[in-house]
C-alpha cells in the first residue's frame, strides 16, 4: 500500500541521494586538498553530456559507456586539474582566493567547452543509468559513504590525508606523498561529481548552465557539514531532498502558495543561504592570505605619472568604445551591451578589486537594476510609484537597488575569504531564484526605449556618458582617502582598523556602491535589449563575469571595460561558448600572469618589485641618528656595527622632527578575557603612564597578546575597564580607539602590500582625525617618512620590501596618527642589530617627547634597556609590576 507522503519521500530521496553524492565528493576533495571545488557542478555537467554522447549518439553499450564515463573520464578531469592547476598553487602556498579563482576558471572553461561541443539548446534525452526507484542511488551513497569512512579511519591513506591537511610541509617531511593524496582527492571528487551529474541529468533538460548551478546549490550540504563530516553531509542531503518533495503536497492557495512553491523549488539554494548566514562557519586555512597578488596589481596611487603603457591602454580603450559609432545598425545594437556590461564589471572591481570583498553575486544586483527599471517604467508596481520615463526609471532603480547592497554588506562584516564568497554567491542565487524566476515579479516589465532613446546611436552615447561618469567617480574614490582605506582593508583588515579605518562601515559602503553600479549596468543591459531576460542575470553568468574581471585585473577599471568588450565581442562575433572558454582558459593561466592580471602588464613593473632602488635589508638611513641620544645599549650595538651608508634621504634634506606628541595615561582595570575553557587574562590591572616606556613581558601563553588586544580594541574584555586619559573606552571598537590616539603595531606585520610606502603611512594620518584635511595629513606623512628615512621609498609598493623596512613603515603609520599612547607588539622581531639599535633610540625619543608606550617584548636585554616600568604576566595574571630598570632579572 502506498500513500502520498511516502511516495513523495521516495521521490525526494532520489534528489537527496544525488545531493549526498555531490556532498561526499566536496567534503572528501576539500579534506584531501584544502580546496572547495566550485567546479563540481561543471564536472557533473560535462560527465552527464559524455554519458549521453556515448550512449545516445555513439550507441555504445551501457556496460562500456558507464565505466568509461564515470570511472575514467570524470576522475581523469579531476586528476588533470590537480596536476595542471592546483598542485602548483598548493606548492606556492596560494591563498583561498587564488584557489577559488582557479576553480572558477575550471568551471567557466568547462561551461564554455560544453557550449562549443553541444550547443546551448537544452537536451531532454539524457539516459537513465539507474532504476527510477531511489534505492539504487541510496545504495551507491551508502557504499561510497561507508568506503570513505573506512578509508579515513582504518587505512594509512586516511592518516596521510589528515596529515597533509594539517600541515602539508610537515607531512611531506615525514615521508607522505602529498601530491598523491591531492590527486586521489581530486579524482575522487570528480568521480562523485560525474556520478551526481549522471543521476540528476535524466530528470532535467541538460544544458550548460542548469545542471552546474543545481549541483552548486548542493554545496549547501557540504557547507552544513562544515566541509568535514561526510555523515552530516549525507544526512542533510537526504533530509533536504525529502523535505523538498514533501512540500509539494501543500496547497495553501494565494500568495502563500507561490511562496511555498518558490521555497520548495529552491530549497537547496535557500539551505545554502541559511547555512552561510546562520552557522558560524570556519573552514581551516580559508581566511589565510586572503587577498594576494591575484587581486592586487602594482599600486596605482603612487605620485609618479602613469606609465606610457598604461596611458596607451587608456587611449586604446577610449578609441575602442568610440568605434561602434561607425558600426552598421546590427553591430551597433550588439555593441550597446559593452558599456552596460562594463558598468556591471566595474562594480566587481570596486567591491573585490578595491575593497577585497570577494563578491560572486553581482549579477543579482544587475538583474535587480533591469527589473526595477522595467517595473518603474511600467508604473504602479514598485512602492506605488507612478510610471517614469525610461531614463528616470533607470536612475530611480539604481537608488532603490543600492541599499540592497546591504544584503551582502551586513554578512560581509563578519565574513572573509571562502565563507564570504559562498555568502555572496548564495545571496545572488536566492535573488535569481526567488525574484527573477518568479512570473509574478517579471510579467508586465516594460523596457521599451521611446523617443530619442529609441535611436541606438543616441542610446549608445548616453551609455558612454554614464560609463564615463562612473569611471570618474570610481577613480576619485580610488585615489582619495576612501581608496586608501579600501586598499588597507583589502590587504589587512586588523591593520586597517588599527589605522583608524572603520572597516564595517567601509564594507557596507563598498557593497552599496557596488550594488548601485551593477544596477545601473543591468538597467542599461535591459534597456539596450528592450526586454527583461532572467537568464541574462543567471548566477552562473555572474561567475563568468567575476572570472573575467579577475583575469583582466581585479583592481583595474580599464580592465573591466576591456573585459566587457571582449565578452560582448566574442559572444556576437563567434559561436556561443567561445567567450566563456577564453575567460576560463585565461583564469587558469592567472598564476603565470603578472600580479593584478592582464592590467598588471600595462603598469610599470619596476615600482612593483622595487628591486632597482630598494635598499638591502637593514640599511636604515642615518638622518636623525646624529640628533638622537645614544643609550648604553644603543652605543654597544652601534659600536659593533659598520657605520651605515649615508642617507637614503635626498641630499640636503634636513632631518625632520616628530609631530608634536602629547601623551595620555592608558589604564587597564581588572581586565578579564576568557576563551572557551581558557581564562587568557584574569583580572589584570596595568597602567601605562605618559613619558615612559612600559614593558609587558612574561612566558609564552601568559596572556600578553590577549591583554594587548583588549587594550587596542581588537578584542573585548569579558570584565574590567580600559581607560585612555581617564575616558572609559572599553565599549569602543578598535578604529574608534585608534582615532582617539591609541595606535598599535602587530607582532605579525600588518602593512598593506598593495599600497605604496607613503600611502601606508598616509592611511594612518588621514584616518586619525576621522576626515582631517588631506593636505595636513600629507605633510605629516612626509615628516614621518623623513624621520624614518623612508623618503626614497615613498612610491614603492610595500610588497617585497625587507622586514626591517616594513616594521618601520608600520611604526610610521602609527606615528602619523599623532598618537597619545602607542602599543608595540614585539617591534624588534625580524630586525637586525643596527635596526634594533635605531629602534631603541627612536622609542626613547618618543617617550621623552611625552608619549605613553607599551611594549610587548621577550628580549630581556631590550626590556631592561628600554623600559622605565615592567609588567610581568604569567598564566593570565600579573606576577610582578614595578618601575625599576633591570627588574626582569629579578622577576
Ligand atoms: N582566540 C583564542 N581562542 C582560544 N584561546 C586563545 C585565543 N587566543 C589566545 N588564547 C589562549 O590564551 C592564552 C594566552 O595567549 P596569548 O597569545 O595572549 O599569550 P602570549 O603571552 O601573548 O603568548 P606569546 O608570547 O606566545 O605570544 C593561551 O593559552 C592561548 O592559547
UniProtKB/TrEMBL annotation:
Compartments reported by the entry: Cell membrane
Gene Ontology BP term (one): L-valine import across plasma membrane
Domain ABC transporter: start-end pairs: 666-891
Predominant place of localization: membrane
Xref: SMART domains: AAA
Record's keyword terms, sorted: ATP-binding, Cell membrane, Membrane, Nucleotide-binding, Transmembrane, Transmembrane helix, Transport
Name of this chain's protein: ABC transporter permease
InterPro entries on file: AAA+_ATPase (IPR003593), ABC_AA/LPS_Transport (IPR051120), ABC_transp_permease (IPR001851), ABC_transporter-like_ATP-bd (IPR003439), P-loop_NTPase (IPR027417)
Keyword Transmembrane: yes
Lineage summary: Bacteria, Bacillati, Actinomycetota, Actinomycetes, Kitasatosporales
Domain of life assignment: Bacteria
SUPFAM superfamilies associated with the record: P-loop containing nucleoside triphosphate hydrolases
GO CC term (a single one): plasma membrane
MF GO annotations: ATP binding; ATP hydrolysis activity; L-isoleucine transmembrane transporter activity; L-phenylalanine transmembrane transporter activity; L-valine transmembrane transporter activity
Positions of transmembrane segments: 12-30, 37-58, 64-85, 97-118, 133-152, 219-243, 255-279, 334-356, 363-384, 390-410, 417-436, 458-477, 508-532, 544-568, 575-593
Source species of the chain: Streptacidiphilus pinicola
Topology versus the membrane: Multi-pass membrane protein
